[in-house]
From TrEMBL:
Gene3D superfamilies on file: 1.20.1050.10, Glutaredoxin (3.40.30.10)
Family label: Belongs to the GST superfamily.
Protein name: Glutathione S-transferase
Domain of life of the source: Eukaryota
Record-level GO BP terms: glutathione metabolic process
Natural source organism: Helicoverpa armigera
Any GO MF annotation of the entry: glutathione transferase activity
PROSITE patterns for the chain: GST_CTER, GST_NTER
Subunit structure: Homodimer.
Amino acid sequence: MSLDLYYAPGSAPCRVVLLVAAALDVHFNPHILNLRNGEHLTPEFLKLNPQHTVPTLVDGDFSLWESRAIGKYLVNKYGGENNDLYPNDPKARAIVDQRLDFDLGTLYPRFGNYIYPQIFGGAKADEALLKKLEEALQFLNTFLEGQKYAAGDKLTLADLSLVATVSTIDAVDISLKEYPNVEKWFELVKATAPGYQEANEAGLKAFRAMVAQLKAKTEL
């Protein structure tokens, strides 16, 4: 098995793939790209991924991008026949897919819409966008009512995707105190996701450092 992963450690979607790989004990040849230097725009990388996004996985002559698609591929190929991360039962899998789509289409975009203009553009906080993010967090809090994990009583791809987003939200000091189910779930996933510290916390450290550096520039 020879897998190449092109990624940026601070990126939440990239950390999703690292978390999945840790849970499966799958190892990559790592290729860290400096996006600010345009390393994702080289002709060589565009041949692998014309959308020039990270993470990008290369498995032999097969390349794939979008973190949740990569996560599903890794489980399907390397996770064995009955892997709890992405269950075979149609209803159980549908719930995992719904949570993944919620992260992709609602929670992470609302976080990005609110925080990234502040980090990268020096914009002032937009209260309307914050309200949209808070609504998404409340949705997640409701999903978790009476649940151990995001899609039932076992750790799944949904948890690994959502925890990358929620930990990034937490990293910019957006409080989770109003969402007790989210807080409880967050602590559980941090404690039970295989390789969590190396797969997620290391990248969060890089993300926090980048945020601090960019904030310092906008305050000059």
